[in-house]
Amino acid sequence: MAVKVLIPTPLRPYTNKERSVFLSGTTAGELLNELTTQFPVLKQHLYSGDGTLRSYVNVYVNDDDIRYLQQEQTPVTEKDTVSIIPSIAGGNRQCRLKVEGLTLEIQKTTSKKRIEWLINESPIN
Q: To pair with 122 at 20 to 30 A between CA atoms, which of 34, 56, 91, 111?
């Protein structure tokens, strides 16, 4: 059975620039093993020296993180899509929002709903 595995842009140099590959396996771990067998240089980017999946490598079966399922033993079928998503480090950039003379410091990650609340419902209005 072939399962589609999506390759993220940062890892494509190690998979001959493939965006996705179809691999055989019945668990997420079997697919990852097959992937690193086909592309051996990729193994060091996915696994630590002790053979465990690196903490910053996130693997999803469809929309579900395997960490919250059965980890590498999570079953897969040909109807599933497996995504490898490495965490990307970034800053915590802030922006300024001026509301009727009041300046608020808002983190970039602040949701649109929170900004709307600040503008429309906050007790500072």
A: 91
